[in-house]
Amino acid sequence: MLSKLGIIAGGGELPGRLVRACRESGRPFFVLAIEGHAIAADIGPDSPQRWIRIGEAGTGIRALRDDGKHDIVMAGPVRRPSLSDLRPDWRTARFFARLGFRALGDDSLLKALTAELEAEGFRVVGVETILHDLLPEPGPLGRLTPDEQGRADIARAVAVCRAVGALDVGQAVVVQQGIVLGVEAIEGTDALLSRCAGLRRAGPGGVLVKLCKPQQDRRVDLPTIGPQTVENAAAAGLRGIAVHAGRSIIVDRPATIARADALGLFLVGIGAEEAAP
Amino acid sequence: MLSKLGIIAGGGELPGRLVRACRESGRPFFVLAIEGHAIAADIGPDSPQRWIRIGEAGTGIRALRDDGKHDIVMAGPVRRPSLSDLRPDWRTARFFARLGFRALGDDSLLKALTAELEAEGFRVVGVETILHDLLPEPGPLGRLTPDEQGRADIARAVAVCRAVGALDVGQAVVVQQGIVLGVEAIEGTDALLSRCAGLRRAGPGGVLVKLCKPQQDRRVDLPTIGPQTVENAAAAGLRGIAVHAGRSIIVDRPATIARADALGLFLVGIGAEEAAP
Question: Which of A180, A223, B159, B213 meets the CB 3.0–4.6 Å disulfide criterion with A171?
Answer without folding.
Answer: A223
